[in-house]
Specification:
With 457 residues, the chain is of the alpha/beta class. The protein folds into two domains: 324 residues, 3-Layer(aba) Sandwich (Aminopeptidase), CATH 3.40.630; 112 residues, Galactose-binding domain-like (Jelly Rolls, Sandwich), CATH 2.60.120. The chain is built from nine helices and 18 strands. Strand 2 and strand 3 form a beta hairpin. It starts with 42 loop residues before the first strand and ends with a strand. The structure holds D-tryptophan, calcium ion and zinc ion (2 copies). Pfam families: P_proprotein, Peptidase_M28. InterPro entries: Galactose-bd-like_sf (IPR008979), M28_fam (IPR045175), M28_SGAP-like (IPR041756), P_dom (IPR002884), Peptidase_M28 (IPR007484), TAT_signal (IPR006311). This is P/Homo B domain-containing protein. Keywords: Hydrolase, Metal-binding, Protease, Signal, Zinc. It comes from Streptomyces gobitricini.
């Protein structure tokens, strides 16, 4: 339980003990070389401010060749497994294994969720990108199964490949969004949204409440494409429409989508949803052909649920535009508010020797790129290697010099090291500037050093 009854200690007055919240220890690494000698008043060189925010970052281009490479793999998998990637058939599990291997290699935390339908085992693949606020999850998904009549390259290799390549782009960028990113590949969608329903139904209500939005991509490379945006959550819809407007590509509201793909499973439990679609068996009108090109009077996808839904059943421009739109939505919706997102960390890992029973030393981090004041729950990560930590007094110094007592000396605390995170109400302090951790050893014998100092906003 965190108790953070902090009182701001006016500058240069006798420090008053305040209760510091001790969060889980171990946020900072403990491995460190023996302390290097340094002058008593030494202040470690401030680490270069390294805000790890994605607030303003634009999404990278998603390479069409990479997306098509995944489609080639799905085609090959179908070819080696009876011609399809359908639920309960070997081609589906082989597809799961392919996608999972790519994600594991890219640093995702993957989970294969099993379920049974029609007497056979189905699989969902969930991939979490470590970091971000796990109370605010942005999720993107696609069904990975095909119908039994073919390889299902547009339906829905296209969505699966675009979501996979976007996840891999997140890894390449080492993106650190404010919100937590999760990706899903669903089984048995063609049999009635079975896999996504199973996932949602087995997600505790507390976990469902953390999903800020679910983005669905089912058929996004149709050979005679339309550009349809789901008309569900307004913010998600706007994100997609703005993207296509930026390309000069008109969009239409997806009118047949309700209940027709995996977003329905999420919508049914109150999770905001959105998504993209390039059309299935419906016929493109003349007006649509006027704005999008292609062939009026012909289905958006003539090979829908047919054996001809192969890698030749893809419109490259549609697949490229939609893959880039997936990335745009992920980068944009996970960045949080206009403020640099929570999870912004600044740290200094330079060692600073603490003189035994001597003057105080400091370690400095310089915060920049933020606006306004620091938060009321500023996380102060402290990592001090020191025998008999009862010798130590530890303060946080705000940029204006105001001292916040984190730890008092306590003669009988013979344990080693101070490795924990304090929560400080720093809301009266400007966020930007040089923050310092001040440490003083006030009792003879036992020595050590500051190993790391971290501020998380
Ligand atoms: N049911 C999907 C294809 C599909 C048909 N209409 C829509 C609208 C929105 C998304 C998907 C679809 C399938 O066959 O997988
Ligand atoms: Ca691209
Ligand atoms: Zn289908
Ligand atoms: Zn589909």
């Amino acid at each position: 339980m965190k108790l953070s009854a902090h009182h701001r200690i006016p500058r240069r007055t006798a420090t008053t003990a305040v209760t510091a919240a001790l969060a889980l220890a171990g946020l900072l690494g403990t491995a460190a070389p023996a302390a290097t000698a340094s002058t008593a008043a030494a202040t470690a060189a401030p680490a270069a401010a390294s805000p790890t925010t994605a607030a303003a970052l634009a999404a990278p281009d998603i390479p069409l060749a990479n997306v098509k490479g995944h489609l080639t793999q799905f085609q090959s998998i179908a070819g080696s497994n009876g011609g399809n990637r359908a639920h309960g058939r070997p081609g589906y599990k082989a597809s799961i294994d392919y996608v999972k291997a790519k994600l594991d290699a890219a640093g995702f935390i993957t989970t294969v969720q099993q379920f049974t339908y029609n007497g056979t085992t189905g699989y969902n693949l969930i991939a979490d990108w470590p970091g971000g606020d796990t109370n605010r999850v942005i999720m993107a998904g696609a069904h990975l199964d095909s119908v039994s009549s073919g390889a299902g390259i547009n339906d829905n290799g296209s969505g699966s490949a675009a979501v996979l390549e976007t996840a891999l782009a997140v890894s390449r960028a080492q993106l650190k969004p404010a919100k937590h990113l999760r990706f899903g590949w669903w089984g048995a969608e063609e049999l009635g949204l079975v896999g996504s329903k199973y996932y949602v139904n087995n997600l505790p209500a507390t976990e469902r409440a953390k999903v800020s939005g679910y983005l669905n991509f089912d058929m996004i490379g149709s050979p005679n494409p339309g550009y349809f945006v789901y008309d569900d959550d307004p913010a998600i819809e706007k994100t997609f429409k703005d993207y296509f407007a930026g390309l000069g590509v008109p969009t239409e509201i997806e009118t047949e989508g309700d209940g027709r793909s995996d977003h329905a499973s999420f919508k049914n439990v109150g999770i905001p949803v959105g998504g993209l679609f390039t059309g299935a068996s419906r016929t493109k009108t003349s007006a649509q052909a006027q704005k999008w090109g292609g062939t009026a009077g012909q289905a958006f996808d003539r090979c829908y649920h047919s054996s001809c839904d192969t890698t030749s059943n893809i419109n490259d421009t549609a697949l490229d535009r939609n893959s880039d739109a997936v990335a745009h939505a992920i980068w944009t919706l996970s960045a949080g508010t206009t403020e640099p997102p929570t999870g912004d960390t600044f740290e200094n890992t330079a060692d600073v020797a603490i003189p035994d029973n001597g003057t105080a030393v400091t370690s400095t981090v310089t915060v920049s790129g933020r606006t306004g004041n620091a938060p009321a729950a500023l996380k102060v990560g402290v990592d001090i290697i020191h025998t008999w930590r009862g010798d130590l007094v530890v303060d946080l110094l705000a940029p204006d010099g105001t001292a916040y007592r984190l730890k008092n000396s306590s003669g009988n605390d013979s344990a080693d090291n101070v490795q924990t995170t304090y929560t400080v109400d720093a809301s009266s302090e400007a966020a930007n500037g040089a923050w310092r951790l001040r440490v003083q050893d006030v009792a003879a014998q036992d020595t050590g050093y500051i190993n790391a100092f971290r501020l998380t906003f």
